[in-house]
Amino acid sequence: MSKTLIIGAGGVGHVVANKCASVPDVFTDLLLASRTKSKCDAIAKDVKARQGVDIGTARIDADQVPELVRLMQDFKPDLVIHVALPYQDLTIMDACLEAGVHYLDTANYEPVDEAKFEYSWQWAYRDRFEEAGLMALLGSGFDPGVTGVFTAHAQKHHFDEMRYLDIVDCNAGDHSAAFATNFNPEINIREITQKGRYWEDGRWHEVEPLSAHKPISYPGIGPRESYLLYHEELESLAKNFPSLRRARFWMTFSEEYIRHLDVLQRVGMTRIDPVRYEGVDIVPLQFLKAVLPAPASLAENYTGQTSIGCQIKGVKDGRDKTLYVYNNCDHAKTYEEVGAQAVSYTTGVPAMIGAKLMLTGAWKKPGVYNVEEFDPDPFMADLNRHGLPWHEEVDVPLPHEYD
Ligand SMILES: NC(=O)c1ccc[n+]([C@@H]2O[C@H](COP(=O)([O-])OP(=O)(O)OC[C@H]3O[C@@H](n4cnc5c(N)ncnc54)[C@H](OP(=O)(O)O)[C@@H]3O)[C@@H](O)[C@H]2O)c1
After folding, report:
1. pTM of the complete model beyond 0.85
2. Same domain, yes or no, for 96 and 154?
3. Cys bridge to 217: 103, 223, 249, 357, which one at CB 3.0-4.6 A?
4. Which H, E and C letters describe 126-177, residue by residue?
């Protein structure tokens, strides 16, 4: 018997609600709450039709701690799965502490007025969660999330010492919109327009946004131009696997996407500071979000697949070894299964798995943790069981240069 509160009714919330409802022996009672209740009701209807399960819905402004505490005291959940926006990480963690509820999210905290994402704000909650006997699991999506579990799996089963990690993320899907983002446009564009950053020889190195790129070949897809980005899991992986000499993250973008982004940046539409327009303050990026397609709306007729994995080089039994562990996910198949595109699906399924492991006690430790700090085996087994099968290739040549 468990009660789970899901916060956020976007593309990811839609998948989380469906996947939790598909495991009724663990998730016995579900409540979906978000800013717009009608979106929760539409998801609840979809869950009833697909899974035959009734879930409750509620309206919540997750920026307001007292509102969150009231909802939690009323519903009395064991766990909150937070799939609204990273801006709400800290208010939801505060409310969880006050109401005595475990916490899980898929993206680290970002202040609204500064495009800066790092774990320090949430790691600072470690003592308070530990003292309260509560657990917070950070970044249980795909990247961050599965990429951390893949890295822990590599350390446990393949290497004595991991030295180089390249996370490679390809979306080779076609949604036929001229320009759209696959998850929340505001968060996505803030991430991509930042300087690229990677870990090497014990310190961070920076490159200009989208300036470092090369073709990388993805399984079942072929070569795609891939851009070096800063991605939040690099921070926790560099800390939790200190043998890594270098850790980088690569993501594919089409020429069309880069061209649109370039123009939007040049004309100031990606700015996050307010601009006065006819007596009202408007944040250009928030306005842009309002006119772009919602991520969930891309799902119908989306074709092609995503491929995300970890390419690792290190040493085992005194000799060099490489490992490529990855998952490919097909947009049309996820649409058929839960009515969502693959980027929402690859985030929502690992959120459900992390929650399942917490509720069943397989992963349970008071404090604040990243996914790679736990035994990867049950998570890897559940990926195969719940729709994200993974593959691994040992000692294949990897497309990177090594010292
Ligand atoms: N780790 C990963 O692999 C990964 C990958 C993709 C996405 N993500 C994360 O997943 C999260 C959800 O992404 P998405 O694509 O589902 O985004 P989305 O479609 O934009 O959905 C966000 C949802 O949050 C709700 N929301 C926003 N502010 C709120 C507030 N103050 N109170 C209550 N609800 C609020 C929105 O409500 P409205 O409908 O009223 O706007 C919307 O339902 C994001 O944090 C994103 O960074 C993680």
Report:
1. yes
2. no
3. 223
4. HHHHHHCCCEEEECCECCCEHHHHHHHHHHHHCCCEEEEEEEEEEECCECCC
Distance 156 CA to ligand 1 centre (A): 33
As a whole number, the mean pLDDT across the chain is 96
Cβ < 6 A, ligand 1 pocket: 8-13, 34-36, 39, 60-63, 83-86, 88, 106-107, 141-145, 183-184, 187, 294-296, 343-344, 347
Question: In terms of Cα–Cα distance, which of 319, 172, 320, 318 is closest to 251?
Answer: 172
Which atom of ligand 1 is found nearest the CA of 296?
19
- For ligand 1, atom 17: residue with the closest CA: 184
pLDDT per residue as tens digits for the range 301-329: 899 999 999 999 999 999 999 999 999 99
How long, in residues, is the chain? 403
Given 138, 162, 193, which residue is the final one in a domain? 138
The pLDDT, as a whole number, for residue 297 is: 87
